[in-house]
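Handout, section 3.2

Students often ask what a structure token actually looks like in practice. Rather than define it abstractly, here is a full record for Glutathione import ATP-binding protein GsiA. The first block is the sequence as you would receive it.
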Amino acid sequence: MTEIPENTMINTTEAGLAVAPPPVEQPSATLPERPLMELLNVSKTFTVRSGGKRLTLSAVDGVSLRVREGKTLGIVGESGCGKSTLARVITGLHSATSGEMIFDRAQIPASGKRPKEVIQQMQMVFQDPSSALNPRATVGESIAFPLRVQGMSRKDVDARVTKVISDVGLPASYSGSYPHQLSGGQRQRVNIARALALQPRMVVLDEAVSALDKSIQAQVLNLLTDLQRDYNLTYVFISHDLNVVEYISDEVVVLYLGQVVEHAPAKELWENPQHPYTKLLLSSIPSMDPDDSTRDQPLDKDSSEIPSAINPPSGCRFRTRCPMAMDICAQQAPPPIETSDGHLVACHLYTEGSQAAA
Ligand SMILES: Nc1ncnc2c1ncn2[C@@H]1O[C@H](COP(=O)(O)OP(=O)(O)O)[C@@H](O)[C@H]1O
Ligand SMILES: [Mg+2]
């Protein structure tokens, strides 16, 4: 397999994470492209209480997507749009309210108990590096714990712990350290090591680098890229930070109020965003290029208020913030349309027979 040369390390600037240069193209023929996981029309609702009434909150609504083996699927969207709920549904921490899920070509229960092998093959890394680790356990103990639970022998556990600590770029001596003795970036490396120790095929990273300083973020992202290659891992990488998602993802799903509004190869999404919400998100990223003043300003504060997931707008959920909204948008939810190879958009501007498409 080709080594990624040193000089593909991403540069960091004080302004933020610089996204160039992109990772070296891997020869795609050597990488399997079949989906490792598929979601079909998956929804998750919560029952919440408000003023003595029980209300239904639609956190994830009718999500269908594919995660290709050995690749990274990025998931972006503003806070509250359902990213963490979707991550938990994917890894089985939440059971879905409805829908179907396929892992490694076999149907897995979308709600209810999953087979043990499936649970072990999907691991999750969360945002907050400190709360995920037991403050009273050493790094080595934290990584070893899930392996012991699996019944692995002491000798094998020790060997595995030593290997993953080294694989995440920490000195072997850190095995005896406690979480409070480590920096945020080091603690997140420990969390990654703990996930890797179980030898998963898929890792769901929910805002895994969001709490870290930009320069540390870049190091952890490079580590993740190296581990993906060495372990042939499939990633679902969730972040509200589009720069980070663009850097690490092969494909990106844009979520708005629990629904997929756009799904495209990462480069294509950035060069040719189609959904008005994706355009809004991209126009709100601070540009890394000081000469680039061409980006639009985000919508003003009032019109950018996100509606509640308890009572989402009819038809297209984005219509209340959409500068392009038409009558049909309030009446019908737009179906996903494939506008080019692998580029899906759910917007009436692109549905056949719409004024705009015409
Ligand atoms: N356990 C829960 N109970 C009730 N509502 C929840 C729960 N978890 C998330 N939600 C709601 O679901 C919606 C999506 O939340 P979340 O998945 O955390 O979004 P994100 O990760 O994109 O910020 C929000 O409206 C949130 O308030
Ligand atoms: Mg979240």
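Discussion prompt for tutorial groups: The radius of gyration is 21 Å. How would you have guessed this from the sequence alone?
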